[in-house]
């Protein structure tokens, strides 16, 4: 893992869950799992720049992207993984 990737992942880990932020607004961030953007990528994963910080429930829980699937997740919440990635990148830029 490169130094840039390590630094990027460390910054993401401090941001909190992007889905919780989108749903509940600003709040104290909790622990996250780093999710690779999957929607529209088939079985492939992107590189570290496509990581999205998500809490356990929004990542692997029943109402998470893995629980609902990449088609069910946006139907349930009204936003996509790509929306969360864009939000993540925007926050990364403003906090740089």
How many domains in all?
A: 1
- Provide the CATH architecture: 2-Layer Sandwich
Backbone CA Rg: 13 Å
Instruction: Tally the beta strands.
Output: 2
**Strand residue percentage:** 5-15%
Low-confidence stretches: none
Could you give a short account of the major beta sheet? Answer: 2 strands, antiparallel
| Coarse shape | globular
Q: Give the N-terminus to C-terminus distance in angstroms.
A: 21 Å
CATH fold field value: Herpes Virus-1
Query: How many DSSP helices?
Result: 5
Mean pLDDT: 89
Can you tell me the CATH class?
Alpha Beta
Estimated helix fraction = 40-55%
Main sheet: strand order? 1-2
**Class inferred from helices and paired strands:** mainly alpha
| Order of secondary-structure elements | HHEEHHH
Explain this structure to me?
The protein has 96 residues and is mainly alpha-helical. It has a single domain (3-94), classed as Herpes Virus-1 (2-Layer Sandwich), CATH 3.30.40. The protein contains five helices and two strands. It has helices at residues 3-13, 18-24, 56-60, 65-77, 81-94; strands spanning 33-36, 51-54. The chain has a two-stranded antiparallel ribbon with strand order 1-2. The longest helix is centred in the last third of the chain and has 14 residues, at 81-94. The protein is globular, with a radius of gyration of 13 Å. The two termini are 21 Å apart.
Short description:
The chain is mainly alpha-helical and 96 residues long. It has a single domain (3-94), classed as Herpes Virus-1 (2-Layer Sandwich).
